[in-house]
Amino acid sequence: MREHTRPLILAADAGMTGGNFAVAETGAVVTVTNEGNADLSGNVPTLRICSVGIEKVIPGLAELAVFVRLLTRSATGERITQYTSHFAGPRVGAEMHVVLVDNGRSQRLADERFWPSLKCIRCAACMNTCPVYRRSGGLSYGATYMGPIGLITMPSADVRRYRELPFSSTINGSCSNVCPVQIDIHEQIYAWREVMDDTGGFSATKKAAMKLAGALLSHPGAFRAAAEAGGTALRVLPHFAVYNRLNAWGRHRDVPEAPKETFHQWYARNRGKDGHDGRS
């Protein structure tokens, strides 16, 4: 980063950063970082541009103290981050412009179902705990905001483009449990699914797949047989049969190696019918 990025910053005519908070009491834009790149971008070029969402405006320094502690502890488990920088004005001989971005936020604020998502402080605690995000990675979402919080913020920006995102969740509720500002994330994900259904976001293929999944999951014997058959198929099928247009996962990555046995098979072999393995 120092070899390739720092020379670009040093030679730049303008630097653009976001802002974790905008303090109304002091007029300062506050950035919370670990690397210090935001400080370089904000201090080195003669023109500084801060792009800040309107939901980042908070009343004063007392509130900022609470939010900074929430942010760092929820993000990395630390009491404080490396750089908490206040930019209340330009340096001598330079310019500073603050752009307050709405981009649909006011409209979301007026929606009783989805306005709580505006409370997000971008700590990523929901991503850290999400089993889908941890296994798929951020790029798989195809959106600016990813993970559980992305599932409820991106559809509000473009409901058609991001109609698939609310289905990238098991709705286990872990994201809501760890959220420091108590956003009911999993309930909003479910609400977005209802919106997609009402607005025609469900394709005929998805509806058929959901019906099939519902029938399969409601019969344990059928589900276990399907899981065993699926694992066997992945191990023996030729490459072209697995990687095709019908397999969305295989378009961008390799399909995970199928396990040699299902958990149910392992449990039956190691624990038996009574749930004990015979050891004292």
Characteristics:
single chain, 280 residues, alpha/beta, 4-stranded mixed sheet, 7 strands, 12% strand
Description:
With 280 residues, the protein is α/β, with parallel strands linked by helices. Helix content is 42%, strand content 12%. The protein contains 13 helices and seven strands. Strands 5-2-3-6 form a four-stranded mixed beta sheet, sandwiched between helices. Strands 1-4-7 form a three-stranded parallel beta sheet, with helices on one face. A hairpin with a 4-residue loop joins strand 2 and strand 3. Helix 7 (147-157) runs parallel beside helix 9. The longest helix has 17 residues, at 220-236. The relative contact order is 0.08. The mean pLDDT is 88.
Provide the helix percentage.
40-55%
* Radius of gyration, in angstroms, nearest whole number: 24 Å
Strand residue percentage: 5-15%
**SS content category:** alpha/beta
* Neighbour order of strands in the largest sheet: 5-2-3-6
Q: Uncertain segments of ≥5 residues (pLDDT<50)?
A: none
Q: Termini, distance in Å?
A: 56 Å
What is the helix tally?
13
- Quick check: average pLDDT? 88
In short:
With 280 residues, this protein is of the alpha/beta class. It has helices at residues 6-11, 37-43, 61-76, 105-109, 125-129, 131-136, 147-157, 174-178, 185-198, 204-217, 220-236, 239-242, 263-271, and strands spanning 14-17, 21-23, 28-33, 47-53, 57-58, 83-87, 95-101. It is elongated, with a radius of gyration of 24 Å.
